[in-house]
């Protein structure tokens, strides 16, 4: 294995957590480089279910170093809680976890502003996870954010926090929301800072040393390509670069040290929150929800569901430079027949081969479908590609052909064993 960037090729929730867990077996270091605790990576490990929000999934395996890079936004209280939950479940977080001193902090006023902005947008709301992600990245871009490095210097932190709280409390008051107590936030954050101190490092230096020592690094992408702040369905996106480039800027590892990009995509499409989803299909959603599938790992919200969108994944392959693809949740389609795949969009009578940049135009796009026969039997126990029903093999091969990258992994269930490697 080489240094690998793993990205979501759809709207997030592609089943990245499980694929990362499988790939981590060969990696030495696992890095998160963007997003925050809006992410929820579900991994079944030792028969137990873990949902990781900030800590890379590599933490579940012995002798793997996990890095939370400079591009991540960290809610220190949530991170301490995650460490404690893991410890309670017998998972060690000690020298195997490093946190960048350049990572920005998510503060309670970011969460309050996230909530207020969503409330005020009414029916045009983004449908955020309300974790304060947008306002925290907003402060970072405006150069007014607080970082882990600040938290490591209590006096300086309290001074900066006081100024920020005054500014944000006046905004919250103007919006009709309750102001937040400086004393409480200051005390809680300084406590959390003390707990996080042993993990804080210059992670750029650590990663370059790891590269020099020939260690293999896995970059664990959060969210998905169409939630990217630049390339996604703006404004219905998150506030970081979820595409492959984000792994470089969010970790300090240069592009020429990246060896491959693996795109994870579901055998169908899902999305949480607002914004267009061209292949959305209520019947497919009802069927998946009835099977107990497709509920958000972070917020528990029912995900919107649609058919596989080859226009979107082809575009994602281009933006990310995806070399290989992993198709997940194939078993979700075990009972569906026929199966539709979107191979083009129609907008104002014209056929489009890439999604339009404008969200309103995307909403007006009509998917052009091809139908493939279903396999109508369970794939959950299949362990070899050659044992998949012929229709299932044809389906995944068609997806690879339409997407334009090499198919290397197929997942037919949540556990590590339910993974077919090509
Ligand atoms: P935010 O990242 O909380 O600001 O939310 C912005 C949009 O991204 C919303 O539509 C969320 O539902 C979506 N989103 C954020 N994180 C995830 C994720 O981990 N999986 C899927 N969707 C996400």
Describe this structure in words.
The longest helix has 21 residues. The protein has three domains: 160 residues, Adenylosuccinate Synthetase, Chain A, domain 1 (3-Layer(aba) Sandwich); 93 residues, Adenylosuccinate Synthetase, subunit A, domain 2 (Orthogonal Bundle); 157 residues, Alpha-Beta Complex (Adenylosuccinate Synthetase, Chain A, domain 3), CATH 3.90.170. With 422 residues, it is α/β, with parallel strands linked by helices. It has 13 helices and 20 strands. The strands form five sheets. The chain has a ten-stranded mixed sheet with strand order 9-7-5-2-10-1-11-15-19-20, with helices on both faces. The model has no long low-confidence stretch (mean pLDDT 96). Helix 3 runs parallel beside helix 6 and helix 6 crosses helix 7. The protein starts with a strand and ends with a strand. The chain is 33% helix and 20% strand. The radius of gyration is 21 Å and the shape is globular. The structure holds inosinic acid. Inosinic acid binds next to helix 4.
């Amino acid at each position: 294995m080489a240094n690998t960037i793993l990205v979501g090729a759809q709207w997030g929730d592609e089943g990245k957590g499980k694929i990362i867990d499988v790939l981590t077996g060969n990696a030495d270091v696992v890095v998160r480089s963007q997003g925050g605790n809006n992410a929820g990576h579900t991994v079944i490990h030792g028969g137990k279910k873990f949902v990781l929000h900030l800590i890379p999934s590599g933490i579940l395996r012995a002798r793997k170093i996990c890095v939370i890079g400079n591009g991540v936004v960290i809610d220190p209280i949530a991170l301490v809680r995650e460490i404690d939950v893991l410890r309670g479940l017998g998972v060690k977080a000690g020298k195997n976890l490093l946190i960048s001193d350049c990572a920005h902090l998510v503060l309670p006023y970011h969460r309050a502003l996230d909530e207020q902005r969503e409330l005020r947008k009414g029916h045009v709301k983004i449908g955020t996870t309300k974790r304060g992600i947008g306002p925290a990245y907003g402060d970072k871009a405006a150069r007014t954010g607080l970082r882990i490095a600040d938290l490591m210097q209590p006096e300086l932190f309290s001074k900066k926090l006081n100024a920020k709280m005054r500014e944000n409390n006046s905004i919250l008051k103007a919006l009709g929301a309750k102001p937040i107590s400086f004393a409480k936030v200051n005390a809680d954050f300084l406590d959390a800072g003390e707990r996080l101190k042993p993990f804080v490092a210059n992670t750029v230096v650590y990663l370059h040393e790891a590269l020099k020592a020939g260690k293999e690094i896995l970059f664990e992408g959060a969210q998905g390509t169409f939630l990217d702040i630049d390339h996604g369905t703006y404004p219905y996106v998150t506030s970081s670069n979820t595409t492959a480039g984000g792994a470089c800027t969010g970790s300090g590892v240069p592009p020429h040290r990246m060896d491959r990009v693996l795109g994870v995509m579901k055998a169908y499409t899902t999305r949480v929150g607002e914004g267009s989803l061209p292949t959305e299909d209520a019947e497919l959603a009802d069927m998946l929800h009835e099977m107990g599938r497709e509920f958000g790992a972070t917020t528990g919200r029912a995900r919107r569901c649609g058919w596989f969108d080859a226009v979107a994944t082809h575009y994602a392959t281009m933006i990310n430079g995806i070399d290989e693809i992993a198709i997940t949740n194939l078993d979700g389609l075990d009972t569906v027949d026929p199966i539709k795949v979107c191979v083009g969009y129609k907008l104002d009578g014209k056929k489009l081969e890439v999604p339009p940049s404008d969200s309103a135009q995307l909403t007006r796009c009509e998917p052009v479908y091809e139908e493939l026969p279903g396999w109508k039997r369970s794939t959950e126990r299949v362990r070899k590609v050659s044992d998949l029903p012929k229709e299932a093999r044809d389906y995944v091969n068609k997806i690879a052909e339409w997407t334009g990258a090499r198919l290397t992994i197929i997942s037919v269930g949540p556990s590590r064993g339910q993974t077919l490697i090509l």
